[in-house]
Each structure stands twice: as C-alpha cells, then as structure tokens.
Amino acid sequence: MEMYSRVPYYDFLTKKHPFMLTRHIALVCETQRIGMSELLPVSAALQKQATNDLGPAWSIRATLDAFTHVQDVPPGYWPIFVRDDIKEPGAEGYHTDQNRQPFALVRWSPTWALTVSHEMLEMLVDPFGDRLVASASIKPGQGTVNYLVEVCDPCESNRCAYFVNGIPLSDFYTPDYFDAGTARGVRYSIAGNIKRPLQLLKEGYLSWMEPSTGKWFQSTWFGTKPEIREVTARIEGLDGSIRERLDRIKVHG
After folding, report:
1. Nearest 5°: CA angle at 137, between 133 and 139?
2. Per-residue pLDDT tens for 6-28?
3. Are strands 205-210 and 162-164 parallel, antiparallel or unpaired?
4. Domain boundaries, the chain
5. CA angle 50, 51, 57 (to 5 degrees)
6. Looking at residue 253, what is its pLDDT?
7. What's the pTM value of the predicted model, to 2 decimals?
8. In this structure, which topology does domain 22-125 adopt according to CATH?
C-alpha cells in the first residue's frame, strides 16, 4: 500500500519540525487463547502501522511493545489489554482513561488484531475522547458543526481492513476527512475506502455536536441505509467521556 503523502506541519521560521512527544503503547495479552507465536507478529504489524501510516498522516510518533504480564509494563505506557471478557456486552473493544492515563480493553475474537488496531489508532489520535473538529454538517441545513474525532468509526467494517505484514488492520481517516470539498489525489482514509470528505461507510458511524444548541447527533449505517438521529437525551446522565457515552448508546442500540 502506498503511504499517505501528507507532510507533517513544518515550521518555516526555524526550518524544523516541531517537537513530537513519543507515545508508548503496551499490548498486554491476558488470555490463554493467544500465544507468543501470534502475539509478536501482530505487535510488529501494529508498530509498522503506527510508524508508516498513522505517524505521517496525523503527526504522531508512537512505539508499541508486547507483554504477557501487566506487571512487566513500564510506567508511562498506555496499555491495551486483550481479555476473554471486557465486561461490556456487545462491544469488541473500547478505550478510556483513569486519572488521565489512557488505556484500552479488547475482547478476544478471531479478529482481535483488527480490534486492537482500531483502539490503538483512536487512542493515539484522541486519548481522552473529547477532540472536536469543525466542518460542514452532513445533516442538510445545519451549517457548521463540531465532529468528534473517531478516526476508525466511519470505516470500521471488517471489509475495510487492509493488510500489514499479512495481518488485517483497521482503516482510518486522515485529517483531510474534514475538508470542505473533494480534491483529486487526496487520501481521505489510509486504505482508500473513504473517497470523499465526511463519507460514512456501511457498518460505520459519525457523531457531532451542534454549537448553537449543544445538541449531539449521530449518523449510523447498520441497516439498509444511513440514518441521522439526535442523541442528546440518550447520553445525558451517562458516565465517561463524550466518546464513551456515544459508544455506549451505539453498542446497545
């Protein structure tokens, strides 16, 4: 696959790229279903995805290391735990934080590596589930709204996966996803599944807030066609970040 061509922000006064703090991810296997012969190739593919694909697109620098015991994880790492049960019915995985320390939980399944990729990408781009980007609403007549940055969700179907070292990983959108119009030669998702700004693919979803009212909306495509609904009342009273609350109503319908 051709690597995304966006060049990270460049400071033309100093002729240097700005300092980027390296984020360290720990992939922690807490299930007997995964052996080292499977864990290590997956962790190598995830590192390659973070370095070659996510890094240039979103100006993020990250490392990923695999561990079989949480006690071995060094301080400062953001862990992704793979478990047989993550205590969230209907969810393959999610990421959150505790005391501003991001972490993710992934339920083992035959496609666990794809889910880990999804959670890793979204945790790196939006660690605390509250990053917003302004762009035109996909709801006619609504004007400019603030979209929650969920880089994998509009293209989260397994059919959108692409292969790194022979392992299927999650597609994700680039910053150009929020552009005002379509342009030739621009990559809107790293695997090319998304063809235009703000496109929603089947089995995906997109969430945004209307600034003038503070109301939240969601577009989902889990049926025969995409649907847009207001979800403000459904997330009020729920615990967690904006992302956690929106994910909870998406999972439970």
Report:
1. 150
2. 333 334 343 344 557 899 999 99
3. unpaired
4. 22-125, 132-252
5. 80
6. 55
7. 0.90
8. Collagenase (Catalytic Domain) (3.40.390)
